[in-house]
Amino acid sequence: MIKRLMLWTAVAAMLAAFTAACQTQTVVPSPTITDPNPGAELVSTQPTFEWQPVAGAVSYEFSLAEDATFESVVYSATVTVNRHSLTTTLKRGKLYHFRVRATAAAGTGDWATGFFTTAAEPAAVVPDEPPEVVVEIPDPIVIPPPEVIVTPEVIVEINEVIVEIPAEVVFTVLTPAPGGANVSVRPIFSWSAVNGATGYEFILAVETGADYPFSVIDYSGTLVGTRCVVSEDLEYSTTYNWGVRALSAAGAGQWVIASFTTEAEPGP
After folding, report:
1. Which residues pair with 135 in a beta bridge?
2. Among the listed residues 248, 256, 254, 255, the one whose alpha carbon sits nearest the alpha carbon of residue 165
3. N or C: which end of the chain has fewer CB within 10 A?
């Protein structure tokens, strides 16, 4: 009887010690995520993750995935502080899931999870096209050759400020390229700007003739900008000659002449 009593006393002492050990065991809590906020949008492609520190934690395990089940983990790290910045660049406009858990002397806690969407690719900025100037096509006219006036320079006095304008102004024909072939029957004529020019005179002809610059002009016009579009289609497979010169208060500059050939007529 005494032996049985002693046995039960020993068993009770063991149960009490085990219960006390279980009651004093520390459970490691999950971290509280502070950044990015769960469901955040327009997040940087190289974000910094932060969470509140866990008491007693010696390290934190972090992982990032493209799915909520973390089967496609794209990044992972173990850190000793309560923040971490990615060393890789994420995809734009992409939904990501992340999680973090603390490890302490008592063990490893549960995961704290979150998700966010990175900022989309910025839209391309398309510069505004300069306005096109449409020149009405008049009937063909015949003009005499211009007089050649030799003037070394012209001095214009405006508000007691003297502006010297060179007698010869050279600039560049851009489109159609001189000698170009297969040019559209509705081409855009353009040239480089001339400093001091108040406008430009444009002419277009099929035949040059003996007179300078052209004996017979098919189209002509005066405009302010450096672009010109005729108001109707040109002939197919035809060589055209065109010229442009700058205008200013001092007069007109020299003609710059170029030629091109239009495209062949499309087949049926």
Report:
1. 230
2. 248
3. C
Question: 40 near 70, Cβ under 8 Å?
Answer: no
Domains of the chain by range and CATH? 29-118 (2.60.40.10), 134-262 (2.60.40.10)
Q: Exposure string (b/e) for 131-143, b if CB count within 10 Å is 16 or more? A: eebebeeeeeeee
Phi (first) and psi of residue 140, to 5 degrees: -55, 135
Contact 28, 55 (CB under 8 A): no
Residues 6+ apart with CB under 8 A from 196: 163, 165, 169, 248
Q: Is residue 82 a contact partner of residue 60, using CB atoms and an 8 Å limit?
A: yes
Distance of CA 149 to the CA centre of its chain: 51
Least confident of 22-26, 39-43, 88-92, 246-250: 22-26
- Specify which residues 96 forms β-bridges with: 116
**pTM (global) more than 0.85:** no
- Segment 138-155, tens digit of pLDDT: 666 666 666 655 555 545
- H-type alpha helices, the chain: 2-24
pLDDT digits (tens, 9 = 90+) for 12-66: 666 665 554 444 455 899 999 999 998 999 899 999 999 999 999 999 999 999 9
